[in-house]
Design a protein that fits this description.
- This protein is an alpha/beta fold.
- It has 4 domains: 99 residues, no CATH class; 95 residues, Immunoglobulin-like, CATH 2.60.40.10; 97 residues, Rossmann fold (3-Layer(aba) Sandwich), CATH 3.40.50.880; 126 residues, Rossmann fold (3-Layer(aba) Sandwich).
- The chain has 10 helices and 20 strands.
- The strands form 6 sheets. Strands 6-12-11-8-9 form a 5-stranded mixed sheet, with no helix packed on it. Strands 14-13-15-16 form a 4-stranded parallel sheet. Strands 19-18-17-20 form a 4-stranded mixed sheet, with helices on both faces.
- The mean pLDDT is 86.
- This is VWFA domain-containing protein.
- It comes from Lysinibacillus xylanilyticus.
- It holds the Pfam family VWA_2.
């Protein structure tokens, strides 16, 4: 008030009035007021009528002149409606500015937040997290309730500021559960801020499908056996073909499962279950998982947050790959189609600057793609997929040709992949393999 009076212009009028249930004059409205007078005592302090005080103050001023009423108050009125009355000043020369006074809070403890899971399962360890604010260090007690039944009581030491407490709890029944947190201390200014509630939807226990690769015991199943989680363990070869068979599960876990045991058709069904029906999916790493497991460019790859293709290829060594494919009569049908698909997938993993050669053989080797820089990858893949079955089988001569193609090339890594059912004439494979190892 004193600062405002000092900055007042000489021609401006100012007056000071105090009020409780009625308005009383401390300094009449004039242009000579320069200092704040000593306030007179107010007899009746048990009531506050802001509306009446505004009405009387507005009657003192000249309605034709611009007037500003500055109201200093804590806003706790017991009579009248100041807000409604202030609306009458709209369109007039009178404006009202309010300077609120907040009553200083003594020692107070309050619950700032109480967080529980939105969804939980029967038997699952939920985390009930309570944040308590204290204006000063204090000792108290934290109580937690589930559907109005006390489930936890804890003595707490509260430091000034924020204090966080976490309690683990397992629900035993399905349905919407109301949790309540209550903090109690001896001295507390505001009791109304000591309680918060939260709700959690508790569902029946989850049902998981754990898929193994080679009939081995799953450490995941062993770990889950100690939890309140239902699960089925199946071998990848026994996975169902029907979408409905997967929808009974909350999530599917592939435990080091190679892709060829699952197959493209079942992968597509699992993809539908995950993308369209919200079934969870997890792949556990290992020598038969991710890129090593043959999931590159498969429906399963689209479900995962990782890519199967190797990044940072500029750091990879130069590579030469010779694919030798058996197209004999014994390979006709599904075996040849799978072999071609495997060969095509291998090519898709190569860089354009890698070296590729492709030999398809029956009773003799046929050099379908001459050994050299890969270049146009899509054309190479189409060429491989167009191979048709032939007659007899000559593995050794075909492998020897592949070795010959790679032997003199200046490459850091050289690989030969043989795709066959193994029905062939005998040959000196040991010597050929030894030569290959010797020459890198």
């Amino acid at each position: 008030i004193a600062e405002s009076l000092q900055s007042k212009k000489d021609e401006q009028l100012a007056g000071i009035y105090s009020f409780s249930s009625t308005l009383q004059t401390e300094a009449i409205l004039s242009d000579s007021l320069k200092e704040v007078p000593k306030f007179t005592a107010i007899k009746a302090t048990d009531q506050t009528n802001i509306e009446q005080s505004l009405q009387l103050a507005s009657g003192i001023v000249d309605p034709k002149k611009a007037t500003r009423l500055v109201l200093l108050t804590d806003g706790n009125e017991t009579k009248g409606d100041a807000l409604e009355f202030s609306s009458k000043f709209k369109g007039s020369n009178i404006s009202v500015d309010v300077v609120p006074f907040n009553k200083p809070v003594a020692k107070d403890v309050s619950l700032k937040s109480f967080v529980t899971p939105q969804v939980a399962y029967v038997g699952e360890q939920q985390q009930l997290v309570t944040e308590i604010n204290a204006t000063a260090a204090e000792r108290g007690e934290l109580l937690l309730y589930e559907n109005d039944k006390l489930i936890h009581r804890e003595a707490v030491e509260l430091a000034e500021g924020s204090n966080i407490f976490t309690y683990k709890h397992s629900a035993t029944a399905e349905g919407l559960v109301k949790y309540e947190a209550l903090v109690q201390v001896e001295q507390d200014a505001i009791f109304e801020n000591n309680k918060l509630t939260s709700v959690t939807m508790v569902q029946s226990e989850p049902h998981l499908l754990i898929v193994n690769g080679y009939d081995t015991a799953s450490p995941i199943a062993a770990a889950l056996g100690k939890q309140s989680i239902a699960y089925d363990v199946v071998n990848a070869n026994s996975l169902p073909n029907e979408l409905s068979s997967y929808l009974q599960y909350n999530a599917i876990i592939f435990d080091n499962v190679p892709g060829h045991l699952v197959g493209e058709a079942k992968m597509s069904v699992i993809e539908q279950a995950v993308k369209n029906f919200g079934v969870g999916f997890t792949m556990v790493g290992g020598e038969n998982s991710f890129g090593l497991g043959g999931y590159f460019k498969t429906p399963i790859e689209t479900l995962l947050p990782v890519e199967m293709e190797i990044k940072g290829k500029e750091q990879l060594p130069s590579l030469g790959l010779e694919i030798v494919l058996d197209r004999s009569g014994s390979m006709s049908g599904a075996k040849l189609e799978l072999a071609k698909e495997a060969a095509a997938r291998s090519v898709e993993m190569l860089r354009d600057e890698d070296t590729l050669g492709f030999i398809a053989f029956d009773d003799r080797p046929w050099e379908i793609i001459e050994t050299g820089p890969l270049g146009k990858k899509e054309e190479a893949v189409d060429t491989i997929l167009s191979v048709t079955p032939g007659g007899g089988t000559e593995i050794y001569g075909s492998l020897a040709k592949a070795y010959e193609n790679l032997a003199d090339l200046k490459l850091q890594r050289k690989h030969i992949i043989l795709l066959t059912d193994g029905q062939s004439q005998p040959g000196n494979y040991e010597d050929l393999i030894a030569q290959g190892k010797e020459n890198g």
